[in-house]
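Quick board copy: two proteins, each given as sequence then tokens.
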Amino acid sequence: MHSVKYTVFAEQPTKVDIYYRDLDPPTWADYSHNPYVYSPKVEVHVGPDEQWNLDVWLKNPDEWAMVTATSGPGQATPNIHCVLAVDGVVVKTHQGPKGALCSIRHW
């Protein structure tokens, strides 16, 4: 098992919807049949001094580690950031004006 840490924050305070992977699906077919079973969603408030962090354990993070955050509709651009670390090493970062996706696998 590998330690996976997800972090999400924004440069401006905002509410975000975050989807993440906290367990390995048994097979790709199981995942593709119903991806939301394996991708829980939380709604949280983040900002420059307010991060969302989650530690999970995955057998195969190269295939399944993923976190995505979006601020949703509206004109605000809070500049959302995500960070994905595996076994204590940052392996992916991303930022965007309204959302960010961190995944090792190319979805």
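And the next:
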Amino acid sequence: MGHNTHTDTSSGFISGFIIGGLIGAAVAIVLAPQSGEETRDIIRGKAHEFKGKALDLASDLKDRASDLADDLRSQADELAKRGRESFETVRTQFNDAVETGRKAAKSKREEFETE
């Protein structure tokens, strides 16, 4: 459940980052004191900067997702191991109980036969 909150927060951050970038670009175009060519150059530069930040963020998210997948895989392996161990314990106890029952039945049978 903690991971969902973290994922929601990351998604909210990414959405806010993208929306903020778009709003900032729109405001820059409207309020730009430079000529059209200078404004386009600035916007182009900001777009490249934004692209670099977006790629870095995507790389970070990919790394986090990979780490999370590794953690989940490790937890699943541990749970499977515990499940196998529990099954073996129960199976051993069951076999011991069956053997005890057989011995008790054999003992009673021999007791009846000797009477």
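Board note added afterward: The mean pLDDT is 84.
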